[in-house]
Amino acid sequence: MKLFGRPNMRSLRAAWALEEAGTERASSPYVERLTARPALARAPAGIRRIANRSIRA
Amino acid sequence: MNQRHLADWLRRTAVSNMPLSQRRRTLLRMASAFAASAIVAPLASCATRAAPHFASDPFTLGIASGCPRPDSVVLWTRLAPGPSGSHFLPPENIELQWEIAHDENFRGIARHGTVLATPALAHSVHAEVTGLEPARTYWYRFKSGNAISATGRTRTAPAANALNQRLRFAFASCQQYEQGFYAAYHHMAREDVDFVVFLGDYIYESSWGRNHVRKHTAGEPRTLDEYRNRYALYKSDRDLQRMHAAAPWLVTWDDHEVKNDYANDQSEDLDVNFLVRRAAAYQAYYEHMPLSLRSLPQGPAALLYDSYAFGDLVNFFVLDDRQFRAHQACQRPDRGGSNVVANCAERLEPARTMLGTEQENWLREGLARTRARWNVVAQQTLMAQNDRTAGPNQSFWNDGWDGYPGARARLLGNLAASHVSNPLVISGDVHCTWVADLKVNYDDATSPVVATELCGASITSQGPTPKQIAATLTENPHIRYGNGAHGYLLIELTRERCTATLRGLASEKLVDSAVSTLATFTVDDGRPGALPA
To answer: Per the structure, how many domains does chain A have?
Structure first.
């Protein structure tokens, strides 16, 4: 039995881009679709690892 | 909270061990917290909408699964249309349908059902799906009205008597949102893990650190709605959502889910209404995690510690070292929270507790009973002693296990006395990977290694400098390895060995950072102590 029937395409598009193809390990098509992502913005320029860091553990 | 729950909570806490004056103050605060808390709100006191029409995607916070058992998992989501910070729906119950299938295309439905998302729990749902087959991968999704969620993947635990040969999991902690992106989860999702263990500091209540790559959208949360918004912000991250979708999680909390360095009923700023705040934070935590109903908070109390069996290969003991602990020893005047202390006699008092009497007894009994090949104690913070002063003098950070050496010796002594097979302690909190030998007595060079500690990297939170790491390794020879890279530890257990791989990000400041293997250690069956692979 298939409970849900035809997916709501607008919600699907608003969620993850499941239709996109992945580029790494092809062993799991689900993971490929799950982790595929469009080009994303990078962090602001000038951000580097810092040497003297305080910790709030 | 009724009288029975109150009595249960009192038994689980260190309150009953407190001096009378402190106990009276604590009980008064608890009474106030119960009065202010509306956690056990009537679920059916408002209208129910069976088929709502959503103008935008209500699954913006993703989906998740957790608490994997041989025949059950918990499926989670929260209906929250709109951008972060405005994730609130009208005060109506909303019906959701869930289905769980043997295949990603949902051709073979294993189970399905309906749950009610109630405004009392921020329209979160925790569907406890039973009747599943052990050691099996399932796919699941939710539907409500015209909206359907993305598809999640989960996996049940092997049967209790299964002679399973292999288990693979990753563990993570400390994901301060402002200090980095969650690229670690993008890579973790590709590691083909059976499950994820999260060891605390899922959100941060406070803004701190430098070189932020993104910002909290509001100040420090104190109320239930403010904590809900903080979770909504963190859970809006797509890499975090994807990792939740990819595998079930076992979760526990640390301090930042409530307030930095809180201990039991005390906050670092000695807020007299702290238990009211803790009740709000605990409820928001439950609302946003794939937890079973047993963890639903009752006022400022929640039952989070639990054990999980994965065939005869491994047992997990997931601890809560925040809720029931004694206050930190030798605190600064007029202040709670942590401190680095030297010559602190209070720290050495044997009765001091990290877990509370009831949890400590539960753990001792569980360790005495376990017959699993590997036994993992999953808990918040570094367990190995970490002397912070070079040379013969010693100083210790009183918020970690070093602040509770009597409790640590009891736990490790029980491991040794019970002859627990292959005990592993996994830890977080300190934003650095440490691999350590655990001993009952660190002042005795001949004290044997009784367990292996693998303390994991932070996902983003800033950690110690290379110089500080080097000093720690020099001063504490039982700590065999340290690395400040961000990322996660990947653990593979077989009947012969545990293999721990540190997967480190090139930079947590890059949303699409690469990851690489920075170190690999093994622990052989029957021989505590990690060896470089």
So the answer is: 1
